[in-house]
Amino acid sequence: MLYQLNLREVTYALSEALDYVGIDDIMHGKRVAYIACEIAKKLGWRQSKLDKLMLMAMLHDCGVSSTGVHHAIISQLDWEDSYVHCATGASLLQDVPFYDGFAEVIALHHTHWEKFFPYINEEMKLYANLIYLADRVDALRSQFGAHLSHEKETIRSLIQTHTPSMFSPKLCEAFNEISHRDTFWYYLDALVLPYYFKDWIDQGEIQDISFDLLKKIALMFAGIVNAKIPKEPHHTLNVASLARFVSQRYNLSLHDQETIELCSLLHDLGKLRIPDSLVIKTAPLSDEEHIRLRRQGFDAQIILGQIKGFEKITKIVTFSHELLNAKEKLLPYQVANMPLEVRILSLANTLDTMTPLSESDRYSIVETTVDAYALDPMLVPHIATYLAS
Hints:
Elements: E1 2-6, H1 7-20, H2 28-42, H3 47-58, H4 67-75, H5 82-93, H6 103-107, H7 122-144, H8 149-161, H9 169-178, H10 182-186, H11 193-202, E2 206-210, H12 211-228, H13 235-249, H14 254-266, H15 276-279, H16 287-294, H17 296-304, H18 311-326, H19 332-336, H20 340-354, H21 359-372, H22 380-388
Antiparallel strand pairs: 1-2
């Protein structure tokens, strides 16, 4: 099946999940994209290069799932293990045909200007170092602020101090020029920044996107989510596999099966906004912590709801989280009235959190869960066998 989508819009929206890793310091990726593109415009880069730069910069931290790593990124100018998230991000990108051309740049985006190997071509160096410079400008903004004149001057001074060791002199000079405009800093405001991208997104071409490509994009973001939760490294993939299996047993159309699989891969995007300490906590949760966990479905809805063509996916993911959060309060007929796709996704999510199950418990737990989501009881032996395998 083909999906009519604007891949600029898809990337912009899904990159919001990466921005959520900052918890309260969100939109880092978009600020880096804005800063990098403004510097590149000053240097006279053609539009095709600006388009590529915009996408790469928004995705530059796709190797970051941990709030701890994000804190290191924005609180230090440089640190010893900065290459780790670069390598992780490059590995994720190279598995997606639409993004695989970005992998080498992302692998190098924390490389110091004077430490590039001689065989790296000039264009590659400039792309990577420009993202690095924009990244460090935003980190310094987070540390020192960027409202008062002396704060802006501090940022310019520190960038200049580390040029040419860390940054290209040409890029530094362009940044120095544009950063003397007040409007440059105004756009870094979270309320204003989305307007910078609006025309660029609207000018994106609506394309026929295959399920295979869309699945690879979804798998990339699922991998980012799974990396955040060491105790559940395969949760999203397990949910997607089981949900697809159940949808096949229901003889749903191929398109509906694909939709459920995509929903499963994308349903936990909101988890990236949950602090690491809460994700790994084993002690009882406070009321405030429960509220924070329940919000993940809302955050996923906000991300997916920005993508034209994802209306059904957004609806299924949103209702699934609502069902999971409130199933004890709902009457059986209320659950039964939920769309079938919502109940299938909720079932898969619930069963995966219970596995591995002992053979003696598996059948009865599957039977209880199938009944709880008002699904066909004839599915019980098939799901039990599937989980056993």
